[in-house]
Amino acid sequence: MTYSTVVEIRNLQKSYDQKLVLQGINLEITSGQIIGYIGPNGAGKSTTVKILCGLISDFDGEITIFGKDLRTKTIEIKRQLGYIPENAALYESLTPMEFMEFVGEMRGLGNEQTRVKAEALMNIFEMKPHLHQRIATFSKGMRQKVLICSALLHNPDLIFMDEPLSGLDANSVIMVKEMLIHLAREGKTIFYSSHLMDVVEKISDRIILIDQGLVIADGSFDDLNKLSHDENLEKMFTRLTGNTDHSVKAEAFIHAFEK
Amino acid sequence: MINLILKLFVPFRWFIEKMGADYNQFIRILKLKLTLDDRRINKYSRKQESDQEKTLIKQSFYQILMGAFFGMFLIMINEPFTFFYLSHSFLMVMMAMMIISEFSTILFDTSENVIIQPLPIKGNTVSLARNAHVFIYLTMMAFCLSVITIVIAIYKFGDLPGLIFIVTIFLNVLFTLFFTNILYLGIMRMVSGERLKNLLMYFQIAIAIFFMAAYQIGLRLVDKTALQQMVLPVHWYTYLFPPAFFSGLIEAIIKLNFDLSHYIFIAESLIVPLIAIYFTGRYLTPIFNRKLLELEQGDRVSKIKTETARKSIYFRIMSKLFVQNIEEKAAFKLMWKMTGRERQFKQTLLPSFGYIIIMVILPNLGKHASLSDFTSGYKYLLILYVLIMVSFTLCTSLLIGDYQTSTWVFKSMPLKSPASFFKGAIKAAFAKYFIPFYILICTAVCLLWGIKVLPDLIIAFLAIYLITILLYYFQQPDFPFTKEKSAVQGGANSIKVFGLMFLAGAIGALHYLLLMWFDFANLMLIPIYIGAIFYLNRIMVYKEITWKKVDQVNNYS
After folding, report:
1. Where are the alpha helices (DSSP H) in chain A?
2. Model confidence over A12-40: pLDDT tens digits?
3. Are residues B269 and B336 in the same domain?
4. CATH superfamily of domain region A1-80+198-259
5. Quick check: B553 contacting A, CB < 8 Å?
6. What ipTM, to 2 d.p.?
7. pLDDT at B57 over 90
8. Which of A11, B6, B273, B325 is 20–30 Å from B38 (CA)?
9. What residues does each domain of chain A span?
10. Inter-chain contact B412–A78, Cβ cutoff 8 Å?
């Protein structure tokens, strides 16, 4: 398989109310890879994902996706993107089928094609019996399944996932992980943002760690491990983000509520 | 301010505990609710706290203004019993409407259950705190509505009656709260789950229209020349009307008349609200809570019937008539379904149909001696053009909802312009709600004036459609169902309503003048309106609703 550059980010900066959230991110992402995008809370992960998906348009720096400038060719780029947001915000008075029909139509898919695909995707998640039930009655995991299905409906080449496993049951988690590996093999690029270090470690071809809006580590787990000799990604993460005193903190915590 | 409000509950500690609540927990929950209200900002929009404050000030100002209007009417009444009877009736009606439209969400809010239920909170504490929360806002509202009446009462009857009037306002609030609880419990006993929510919505709409009708009819029944001497006779059933309790108490003080009749009123005004609130706290709230939990549980398991828009012939016809491209069609379909299901939308829009009939059409019908007198001229134009007010409500109702976080779906779509979505949205709402209503009105007009008015019906329809899309395309481009009700209604909108009334009058007058000029002159308007609609829908909307403008007011969390 030949790998081509899918995403190119040059000096990406973003600030909210004069606070610089992204301080100059530089990345080049090639096709057929699963990118584990990790970082502590408030590091700028979701902001990066939202910018790349075209949800936030006021940023500084240059971004090209599929060789096109994100600022000027947003629509063309969005046609090839799939996005699973962090919080499962959906229109609760709709049913999954209705929501996906809407998404499908907006993405230019035919009604019949959307329905067949939606049914097939939801069936795999064992959600077929709930296809015509309102989303308001769904649990968090069920909503997440709707989001995953609707993001993949149009067979995107680049998929952005912000905590996609949130709320999913164990079987669905395994299924989604397997699916991501298969999709990457097919040449699709997956940008996977998560706090679940074990999952990121297992499925990612490349791990990008950001902290305070800057990339502080970038490479495959093996490459990074050669430099750091950490036991696992979790250990590496804590060391690189400067939080190694967990047991001291845990003890202090216990002491505080037992006092 | 919060601490001051909470201190007002201190003298009633024994009473609160008597109702089965833990006083300290009660105060803590109430403090939490008031603090949350105090800090509440629309976190999903870019509006800041000051806007929230402005909304509160605007609402209070509006209430004071309404109270002042009513006060102007009361100033003519010299008889104290009548004066206070009418003021308390007005207050009760306004508060009942307020509970129905605004505070039902607080009374039925189960979102905090997940936080509060695991805590060791005693019996009725949570529901009492919930009622107290509503009570505080109702009291504030009652005082805003009565501030002018209090001044008039002091001026007309003296300081002490004015003071007693203030006390009776508190008692009135307590009683109204009890009455609403009873009413809701009655409905909750009949149905449950999603059906209950729908029933409550239609009940609220019916009540809103009923009160408006009662108010209109009541005003017309009053002979204004007899107002000064207006005396309300006391029958046996007068003792059953809560406003009579309170007015009887004040009258007894003013006239120093303590006969049996007044003793009954005094006893009722002091005892009934207290018994009512004790009964509410002790017995009704536990049932209410249980029903609320059932409601929440029911929602989890109940399968909700969903209509399929595709199957409707009317939908297909409207879709063919109105929709221009695929994106617009998708939005049209989505909004067709959602406007049929979103309760807040229906709750805001549907009463306006009733209001139009009650406030404008029926009074005009009633002014004329005979039907032939009424149908002799061009009065149908007034009936048709007044419907522009409904189209205004349609545009604002579409904004109201809790979907601030769901808008990411639009932004993540490959749409060149968001205009298609906005076009689909307003067209769906217009086709689904306005057109059937318009057809109904047209049928009545045709029956009264004959088929000859058909061209005028078409012209008026085009004019209303033109104004509707004009209003919608040129308002702030918030995605549908993303704004709080308080942010959409109120001050600035009142100015818009006046402006719109003027516009409706102007285009109605233009239509009328053309009719008077020569036969078929009115038909000139058809190509003008069609041209304008075409220009707005095909060109102007894409210039007006751009991603830049949409991004400024929507947040894609």
Report:
1. 45-52, 74-79, 96-106, 111-124, 140-152, 170-185, 197-203, 221-228, 233-240, 246-258
2. 999 887 888 999 999 999 999 999 999 98
3. no
4. P-loop containing nucleotide triphosphate hydrolases (3.40.50.300)
5. no
6. 0.77
7. no
8. B273
9. 1-80+198-259
10. yes
